[in-house]
């Protein structure tokens, strides 16, 4: 994998910028806190407001109930005062007229009271009921049971009816007589002087010295209570009503329910709670809005079960300011949240910009551009980001130094490899020339051998026939001359061959020395690569430490983790590049060792060829001497023909010796030819190895050139 192919590789999925993460990490909790606070505040304010409002409604309901209770108190006190007055008059022996006057004066003096009446047991008032039978203001039985009411603005007296009235079982009189307790009766509507009136009756027993004497009653017209209830309109849509202890409406803004029992499904619970003296409240949804119905007891003197005062309070309207306040708080919270988000966006930019700059430089380094200097980082804050930037700058500086040295060494190695390749080519060319010269020497030696054989045949013919000695001697002289010339040329060729072999041997030694220097250079490059690998390992360790520190920093250190990952990737890529370079260097080492072995073998072959050439030269020198001697002998034969027969045998022996020497020289030249062939192959192998070494060094240089210093 190339350095460039590792760029922009996502780590763990979709790429999300650190700035967005910081904004999310802070905004989401802040939003949740804002919402939680808003919810708590809203709930608390609403709950507190509802509690306070309910307390206020309860207090207001009690206030109105006390006002109604005061009206009832006035009615009960009137009955109590008349009862006590009647007992006093009875003790004083007053007349029934005096009783009438007390009733009328009480009614005239109290416009709040609609009517007053009393019923006495037979003969319990004055013991004179029979005397008052069918008398004015009396019934036929003469019992004292007057009813005083206003007529045309004045008190008027008329008797209470007996049948269907005070004698009715469970009626207003017998119920008190039976219970011996005070009682307030439900509202009743009837016609009085042509008009319908609705009144509430309150009665108390008249007991003296333990004896039940009768009952005293006072009446309260319900219109007064209705006026009180009608004036109670909390927040315009609220209303009030009064119910008896049985849940029957005595006063209500809805006239159709008057005298009827409430249809509230919880009326029994309401009656139970108020009869125990406790308030009771329920919330009901009406078309007009949510209503809080508050019920409180209205205590009446002497009555066991209180009446009930109801106040319907419009909670929807009452909570409108609370809802408005909650909405205002929500608006302020939203504005504050937007301000916090904007502030965080600005702060995150100041934090992430240096990180982005460091990441960009690290990415460039991952692509092979390690030319960034410390000044290229700009104004980095003096914090963890600054430490990371400084560490990255130091790492890049170290890599620039080591890679620069590696590039220089690679250039030197390339030059030496190129020089060695050229030298190998020249060696191969020289060996080709030597090979051609050896071929020529072999050809000349073969020709000389054939000539010597012909000379030997001629000498044998001379020995066989002295007749043709002169002619044969002349031919032998010419052949000897030619043989001498060829031998001298062969010696000349052999000298040139020795010079070329010596040159090849020196070049082989020089190549061996250069190859050894090249091996040392490769070792130097290997040490540089090891240093680069160590730097990459240290960089990887530095990135790991940075990632650990980022993990310790929590969510705020995620940006450092990203940069540390980029640095770690750069270290891995540097390590991969160093590994590749190390592989190339290992190849170079192998090629170098092979070339050194070939060069040493070439040098050894050259040394052997040189030794053989020296031996051949010596033999050829001896052969030339023999040829010269042969030539002189033939000339002597030509000069002294008489001695031909005697010396023909010696000449034949000399020719045999020359022929043998030439044959040996031919064999040695063939050995030289074989050595030159081996040397040529070795030179070609060395040239091939040198070219492979040159290719590897050029690839190494290309890899090094990818780094921008």
TrEMBL record:
What segments bear the compositional bias annotation Polar residues? 672-681
Supply the alphabetized keyword list: Membrane, Transducer, Transmembrane, Transmembrane helix
The segments labelled Disordered in the record are 670-709
Q: Which domain of life is it from?
A: Bacteria
Query: Where are the compositionally biased (Basic and acidic residues) regions?
Result: 693-709
Q: Which InterPro entries match?
A: HAMP_dom, MCPsignal_dom
State whether keyword Transferase applies: no
Short name of any one Pfam family annotated for the protein: MCPsignal
HAMP domain location is 349-404
Tell me the GO BP annotations in alphabetical order. signal transduction
Methyl-accepting transducer domain location, by residue?
423-659
- TM annotation in the entry: 22-41, 325-347
Annotated GO CC locations: membrane
Q: Which CDD domains match?
A: HAMP, MCP_signal, PDC1_MCP_like
Q: Family, per the entry?
A: Belongs to the methyl-accepting chemotaxis (MCP) protein family.
What's the protein name?
Methyl-accepting chemotaxis protein
User: Can you name the source organism?
Assistant: Dethiosulfovibrio salsuginis
């Amino acid at each position: 994998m190339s350095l460039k192919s590792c760029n922009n590789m996502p780590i763990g999925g979709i790429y999300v910028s650190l700035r967005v993460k910081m904004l999310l990490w802070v905004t989401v909790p802040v939003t949740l806190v804002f919402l939680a606070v808003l919810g708590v505040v809203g709930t608390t304010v609403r709950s507190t407001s509802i509690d306070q409002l309910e307390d206020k409604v309860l207090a207001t309901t009690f206030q109105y109930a006390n006002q109604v209770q005061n009206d009832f108190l006035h009615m009960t006190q009137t009955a109590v005062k008349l009862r006590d007055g009647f007992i006093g008059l009875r003790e004083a022996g007053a007349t029934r007229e005096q009783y009438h006057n007390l009733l009328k004066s009480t009614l005239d003096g109290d416009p709040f009271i609609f009517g007053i009446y009393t019923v006495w047991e037979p003969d319990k008032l004055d013991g004179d009921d029979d005397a008052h039978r069918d008398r004015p203001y009396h019934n036929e039985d003469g019992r004292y049971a007057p009813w005083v009411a206003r007529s045309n603005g004045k008190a008027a007296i008329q008797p209470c009816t007996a049948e269907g009235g005070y004698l009715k079982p469970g009626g207003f009189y017998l119920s008190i007589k039976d219970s011996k307790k005070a009682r307030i009766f439900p509202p009743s509507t009837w016609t009085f002087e042509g008009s319908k009136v609705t009144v509430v009756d309150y009665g108390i027993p008249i007991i003296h010295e333990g004896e039940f004497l009768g009952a005293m009653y006072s009446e309260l017209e319900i219109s007064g209570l209705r006026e009180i209830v009608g004036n109670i309109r909390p927040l315009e849509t609220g209303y009030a009503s009064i119910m008896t202890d049985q849940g029957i409406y005595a006063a209500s803004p809805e006239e159709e329910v008057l005298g009827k029992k409430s249809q509230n499904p919880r009326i029994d619970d309401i009656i139970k709670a108020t009869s125990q003296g406790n308030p009771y409240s329920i919330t009901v949804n009406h078309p007009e809005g949510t209503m809080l119905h508050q019920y409180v007891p209205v205590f009446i003197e002497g009555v066991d079960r209180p009446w009930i005062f109801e106040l319907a309070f419009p909670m929807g309207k009452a909570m409108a300011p609370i809802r408005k306040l909650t909405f205002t708080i929500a608006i302020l919270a939203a504005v504050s949240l937007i301000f916090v988000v904007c502030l965080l966006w600005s702060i995150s930019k100041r934090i992430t910009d240096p990180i982005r700059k460091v990441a960009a430089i690290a990415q460039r380094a991952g692509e092979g551009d390690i030319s960034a200097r410390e000044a290229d980082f700009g104004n980095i804050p003096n914090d963890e980001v600054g430490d990371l930037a400084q560490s990255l700058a130091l790492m890049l500086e170290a890599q620039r130094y080591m890679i620069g040295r590696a590039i220089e060494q690679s250039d030197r190695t390339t030059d030496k490899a190129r020089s060695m390749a050229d030298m190998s080519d020249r060696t191969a060319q020289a060996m080709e020339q030597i090979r051609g010269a050896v071929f020529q020497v072999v050809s000349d030696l073969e020709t000389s051998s054939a000539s010597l054989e012909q000379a030997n045949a001629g000498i044998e013919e001379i020995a066989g026939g002295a007749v043709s000695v002169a002619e044969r001697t002349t031919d032998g002289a010419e052949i000897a001359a030619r043989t001498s010339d060829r031998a001298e040329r062969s010696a000349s060729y052999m000298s040139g061959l020795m010079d070329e072999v010596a040159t090849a041997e020196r070049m082989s030694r020089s190549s061996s020395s250069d190859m050894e220097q090249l091996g040392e250079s490769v070792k130097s490059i290997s040490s540089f690569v090891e240093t680069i690998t160590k730097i990459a390992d240290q960089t990887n360790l530095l990135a790991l430490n940075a990632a650990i520190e980022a993990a310790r920093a929590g969510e705020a250190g995620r940006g450092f983790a990203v940069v540390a990952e980029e640095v770690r990737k750069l270290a891995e890529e540097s390590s991969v590049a160093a590994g590749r370079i190390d592989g190339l260097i290992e190849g170079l080492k192998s090629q170098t060792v092979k070339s050194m072995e070939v060069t040493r073998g070439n040098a050894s072959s050259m040394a052997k060829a040189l030794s053989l050439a020296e031996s051949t030269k010596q033999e050829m020198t001896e052969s030339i001497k023999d040829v010269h001697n042969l030539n002189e002998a033939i000339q002597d034969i030509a000069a002294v023909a008489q001695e031909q027969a005697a010396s023909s045998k010696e000449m034949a022996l000399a020719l045999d010796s020359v022929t043998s020497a030439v044959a040996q020289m031919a064999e040695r030249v063939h050995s030289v030819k074989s050595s030159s062939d081996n040397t040529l192959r070795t030179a070609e192998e060395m040239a091939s190895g040198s070219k492979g070494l040159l290719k590897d060094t050029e690839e190494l240089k290309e890899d090094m050139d990818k780094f921008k210093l």
